[in-house]
Amino acid sequence: MHSLTSAVAAVITDSAGRVLLCQQSQGHRLWGLPGGKIRHAESPMHAAVRDIFEETGLETGIIDLVGIYQLTGDTCGENMPDALVHVFRAQIDGGEPIINAPGRISRLSWHDASALPQPTTPTTRIAIADAVAGRSGVLREVHRDAEPEIPDATDGDTAVPAQAGAYAGAVEVG
Q: In this structure, is residue 96 part of a structural domain?
């Protein structure tokens, strides 16, 4: 039996319907939804709002729960804990997207839900599909992908600089 960790993430869209994604700065540099681990005695909703701000600088409000996803499987190495991920639909209440956690996040950018960057986490792919389909309260078991190769720092670097005062393009590390 695997240990279990609890985490949160949020599907945040701009006025064009694109989804905000974060690229990890280390390891496999996976793209995922903003979010993180739930702290001791913290509610999932509070954790989502806190983690989104810590990673993106955005003040957000939770709209509803897209779903709870149990991430499981040993394809990325043995003894990986299962993760119970609460994925919310959130709206931007204030702020501009900036990278607040450069040790964890290398890039933030907006993506069309039908053209997600690679590699993207399996929970991110499934939760975005559920959100785009208008689903709420979904319960799913998600299996980890096989471990991808670790990309070079310049692989797939197609982000576009952010436009001042707009949520278009990507927000790059300064």
A: yes
